[in-house]
Amino acid sequence: MSKQGVLQRIFRLQEHGTTVRTEVIAGITTFLTMVYIVFVNPQILGVAGMDTQAVFVTTCLIAAFGSILMGLFANLPVALAPAMGLNAFFAFVVVGAMGYSWQVGMGAIFWGAVGLLILTLLRVRYWMIANIPLSLRVGITAGIGLFIAMMGLKNAGIIVPNPDTLVAVGNLTSHSVLLGALGFFIIAILASRNIHAAVLISMVVTTAIGWMLGDVKFVGLFSAPPSITSVVGQVDIKGAFNIGMAGVIFSFMLVNLFDSSGTLIGVTDKAGLTDETGTFPRMQQALYVDSISSVSGALAGTSSVTAYIESTSGVAIGGRTGLMAVVTGLLFLLVTFLSPLAAMVPSYAAAGALIYVGVLMTASLSRVRWDDLTEAVPAFVTAAMMPFSFSITEGIALGFIAYCVMKLGTGRWREISPCVVIVALLFVLKIVFVDAH
């Protein structure tokens, strides 16, 4: 049997109305759209004290592992990689603000991923998604977007700490501010013109300008992948298993649950694979792959793994099967030889990408029913409290509590699902018995 015949049989290409050529092009397109994560993730986790070169390699390996597994096991055109948002929460809040070691922080990611896997095995994951209202799901997405954007503005020096006003505008004439802003607008303009590699192009341009200005030192393009022993297997599973980390672990689990599940439904819907209920073929297999990838990511020393909405760029040009995801995964493996290039990328080059991701995630607020205050208030509280409290956990907690308060106060308590009540009560117990002591 020819190679084409083998691929036809494994991925059922003819049945899905696609070809090997189309799937390969779709896989390359998806890769170019999401490859920015291998440059941004090491910078963010580096803030927590992790070895950025090792994180670069593990980010590539986990993205390859998750994407290839999704392609082979679930046969879906969905690529996976470490999640934006939760990496910032891990580095800036769990390690930075809360003072935990990055090893303990990775332990929290591990337990959150294990919780997600258990929910998947018990087949209650989809039930949770279906029973948590749109206003809270949208509020969580938008809040993480605002949180990421704030980190991007901070990394570029566009906003700086101020003892009187909390934050202030930085020096708008500095290289970092100007290049961070330039990078953001390059992405926004190229993306609006449907250029899939917008983020990658922006990072290349701003890094090149930084090199010309003397901010960046050229150290080469290719080398053997750096050692990953400094991060792989360093997760402190026991240290993270304590009541003080309960809210953090729950936040990692809940956000990953919404993020990945929502993306899986969105991408498969774009590919025309979902039915009227939002389910799609091999859904349970896809959820297993997503959960296993997250557990593997924590053990490998990188943040929670999620399905990437950028997969829609490949779907848009005809990707319909897991072959697309496998191609994307194989390309991530090749990138491991570009570690010198990753080391060159300055923080302001990645800042534009963070701000842009914030824009995309905040756009979800348009789906809120703003004329219904019982939906609008919880969405606003969830989204606003994440950047204002510098905590994704607190934003989620206060959002769920606000939802119950608004529905009870207006006599619409029948609209509160048991799932929301359980989550809200758990957060109330955390606030009373954990945070207060």
UniProtKB/TrEMBL annotation:
Its main location: membrane. The chain crosses the membrane at residues 20-39, 54-76, 83-102, 108-126, 138-160, 172-191, 198-219, 239-258, 287-309, 321-341, 348-368, 380-404, 416-434. GO terms for cellular component: plasma membrane. Coiled coil: none annotated. It is a multi-pass membrane protein. GO terms for molecular function: adenine transmembrane transporter activity. It comes from the Bacteria. Pfam families: Xan_ur_permease (PF00860). Keywords: Cell membrane, Membrane, Transmembrane, Transmembrane helix, Transport. It is found in: Cell membrane. PANTHER family: XANTHINE/URACIL PERMEASE C887.17-RELATED (PTHR43337), XANTHINE_URACIL PERMEASE C887.17-RELATED (PTHR43337:SF1). Belongs to the nucleobase:cation symporter-2 (NCS2) (TC 2.A.40) family. Azg-like subfamily. This is AGZA family xanthine/uracil permease-like MFS transporter. It comes from Enterobacter agglomerans (Erwinia herbicola). The gene is purP_2.
